[in-house]
Each structure stands twice: as structure tokens, then as C-alpha cells.
Predict the 3D structure of the following.
Amino acid sequence: MNQQIVEITERIIARSKDTRQAYLDKIERAKTGTVHRASLSCGNLAHGFAACSKQDKDILRGINHSDIAIVSAYNDMLSAHQPYETYPVIIKEAVRETGGVAQFAGGVPAMCDGVTQGQPGMDLSLMSRDVIAMSTAVALSHNMFDGALMLGICDKIVPGLLIASMTFGHLPTVFVPAGPMPSGIPNKEKARVRQQFAKGEIGEDKLLEAESASYHSAGTCTFYGTANSNQLVVEVMGLHLPGASFVPPNTQLRDELTKAAARQVTRLTLQSGNYQPVGRMINEKSIVNAIVALLATGGSTNLTMHIIAFAKAAGIIINFQDFNDLSDAVPLLTRIYPNGHADVNHFHQAGGMALLIKELLNAGLLHPDVETICGSGLERYTKTPELIDGKLEWVDCVEVSGDPEVIATPAAPFKPDGGLKVLKGNLGTSVLKTSSLRDGSFVIKAPAVVFEDQHELEAAFKAGELEKDFVAVVRFQGPKARGMPELHKLTPPLGVLQDKGYKVALVTDGRMSGASGKVPAAIHLCPEALDGGLIAKVRNGDEILVDGETGELTLLVDEAELAQRENSMFQVNGHHEGMGREIFGFMRRNLSTADTGACSLFDEGLEA
């Protein structure tokens, strides 16, 4: 093992010693010596299986076979989740073949960030993660179930399902993916058209034509944003079947993997004699593996918050510094848009997850001695699923990358580090994704131009007021102020200005999309403006240093001058009402800081 990774893992274990033990004690108390439904009264149980077939009722009356919960984020609004419509029937049949029963325990909300980007609904996006976790808890609260299958893919959905899975850590749990849509127009072309529209060179008809050619069918969007980062993280933690993440939907291989996942969870229940509760299975090494794989692929910055939150749900304390230090130890091994021109289908075809895990294991960058839903050791995740004579088999992965421009080796990586830098200075602490930055854009020192809404920046751009070097400061976007919406509409105008030769950067207490790329963006700034962060004192013309090499984020204004300034006040301006935002006030007020997961679900703090 890489010694730096070992040392970081050891410090996480030491830091988490008390909270992890308390968690393990909790899930041990929740364990039962028989099926969980045995604790229910006759009236409880009668309600629990009232709608079941006679065959399933006969099984559930006994104590020898498991009842498996299906929790699904199916809806037609998310192309990634539309294929889940048919999964419950497939799963129920597969579980019945094992002698058990599967019941649809509950659906969870699932919003599409692609639809809500730049819209009022985006203010609910991050908070939807906590709602999903709570909805899953409601689904599992009936105490009928001996294991769970989680059906989710996209941005806040998988993290919410993971928080709930760790909360119900006494249950064996398997995650079931659905796969990406076929590749559409090249991502480089999509980005070019977006910038043409931002410059006023084309109209909405041409923009919609390009967007529709990119997002065009059922399946996950193919760029490497948060949704596909989720899939990679879940697989490397051993919660997917090996190689399942990026198999296309509506194929025989996809259906066979879904059936196999359903059968597999029954092999992990107490009744199987091979009890593997998910809370015991996922440990500090599993979490470090997730971060390493995320960094090695230049994954979504959203996961910096999500991993902290679901790790905390398992009693494991992670912080931004862990990401920073692991990034120093992990080379960048993939080029997937926005860190390159390829999409996840090209990544899958070049060797995909199996080859990536193999390369990372061989280089000593992943902990091999972890538990997975398929047993001990991560080595089995270097195999690829195939249909051989109609039967699902796992075969050795390719020896070398099918496209060295998409998957590299640790010996000759695309970059020597994982492309994530934690910036610190008098402005606070933030995260900067460097994996897709151009040479010469790692260090920006320029005057600030202050905005309190992404639409203000867009308007200033259209008015020609930003033809200069500057650092865009977009504040009052943090968890408590706005629920931390993604500021996706900033990407095209800032990209246009950068292409014109201006030195531009972004500093914000909000988030960028999981597809953030070439513009240096110091995001997730803590403390946020509404919590008294220094960003609330920044004025137009103040010089700011954003240094992705040394990790410095500094407002270059004399301390005596800053002491005389008053904090700017948050102007609600309707941001807390409309599109349901008015009913989320209790949650928004209780969100923790970004560096502690931006989470509202834990009674105690997430101090690291």
C-alpha cells in the first residue's frame, strides 16, 4: 500500500474511534436473532403482508426466509431513473426463486438538477438529499425487512440512500444501477454550442437542438458529473455487483445483473448463514477507497460533501483536508468530460471500472482488504460481467486500456495528483477542482466583481461589463442562505471570457455543477456569508488571490480596513418562497457547513 494513503487512513480511524464504536454498538442492538418480522404482533404482520399473494403470505408467516425491501427513486422526469419502472417485477421474481419475498417498501423523491439548473427549484436540490434519506428511513421503519435493495443513480439520490443505508446499518444492502444512455453529440461540441449561445451567436432553437442531441434517451447522462461519480464511488465501495455501474439499460446483460443483485442480497441476510450488514461492511478503508477512486478519475466536487455526510452516518469522520492529502497521493488516471472529451461509455469500453480498480490496486492506491457484497477482498472487482451462452459470468478484465487517451496507468498518469485542492486563507476554506484546469490558470490574482445571484453575473456579461481580468464573487449561496444551489449558469459566460484571454476565477459559498471544469472555481467556501464569513465584506475592486498551486485563498485587503467594514446583509428577495421553498425553512436553517457535509440530519455537529 501507498504509505501516504495508509497514514491518512490511520488518522481517520483514530479520529473516528469513539463515533465508529458507538455506531457499531447501535447496529448490533438493532440486529435480531431471527427474521425482523418475528417481533411484530399478529396485527402488525397482517397489515404488513395484507396485499401479498397467498404464496408470499405463506412464506412471510414462517421465519426461515427473508423479506427484502425495494426502495426506488423511479420517476419519468429523470432519464437515469426511468428504466427503474420495470425493476420491481424483475426483482420480486428473482427473490422468489431464492425462497424469499421482496416488497416495494417505498419510493423516494428524485429531482433532476439538469431540469432545475438556474431555476427556483434548484434551491431545493441539496436539501432533497436529506429528504431522500428520511423517506428511505420511513420505508424501512416497518421492521418487516431482512435486507434492502436501493435503486438510485443521480446527484442527491445516491448520497441520500447511502445516509439511510448506514442509518439502517444492521440490514444487508445492495445498490442496483440502471446504466448510461447511449452517447449523443460529443461533449466538446455541446460545450461549444453553449458558449455560442452565451455570446449571442445562435438562438434558442439551435441550443435546444444540441441539448436534445446530448440528452436524448433513457439512461444516465453520459458526462462525468455527480451521477456517474456516484456510480463509481458505490462500486468501488463494493455495494454494486462488479462491473455493474455502466452497463446500458434495456439490455439482457442489464436485466441479468439486476436479477443477480436481487439474489445476492438474500445471500447476505442472517437467515443465509452469511450475515453481512452494510454498516459493518463499510468501514474507514471503504471510505478511503471511495475518495481515492473519485480523485483518480477527476470526479464531481459534490462528492466532497456527500462522502463526509454518509461516512458520518456510519460513525466515520472525514474532512476536506483528507480529500486534499489523498489528492496529493493519487494520480489522475482518466480523461472523461469535463476533464477530457470522452464520456462514460467510452470509459466503459476502454476497460471501465474493472481496469481502473485493477490499476489502482496494483499501484497500492486502494485498500484490498475490504468487505464487499460479493465477499472479502476488492480483487473480485477487477472482473467484468458478460453473458456467455445466455448465462451471467465474470471474466478477467482487459490487460491494457482500450484507449490510452481515456484510461492511463499510474506509471504514466494524465496528472501526478488527483486534481482536488483545498484552499485556505482569510476568506476561509474552499475546494478547487484542478483536474481540468488549463496550464496558466492555476493562479489568478485580480480585482473582485461581487454578485449575490448567478443571474446578476449573466446580465453583467451580456451587458459587456466583464471584458477584463476579475474574480467573480458570488455570495449568499451557502447552505443556510439559499440551500446551496449549483451555479451552473456561470460556466458558459466565464468560459467565454477565459477563451478571450482574460484571467477569470470564481469564489463562492455555493456549489458548481458536477460538470465544472476549465474555469478555476473556489467553491463550498466556509464560513458562508450568512454565517459571518469574510466573503460578506468583499467589495468591488478588492484584489483576491486564488492559488491552486500553494492552496491559498486570500482577500488582499488591509486587516484594519476590513475591521471597519460591515458585513453585507442577505437580501432574501423572494428566494425563500415559491416552488416549495417556503416549506424547507426548518431544514435550510439547520444545514451544517459545507466542510461538514451540509447536512441537517444529525443532532450533534460534524466536527472533524
Q: What stands out?
A: The chain has a mean pLDDT of 94. The CA atoms of residues 79 and 218 lie 5 Å apart.
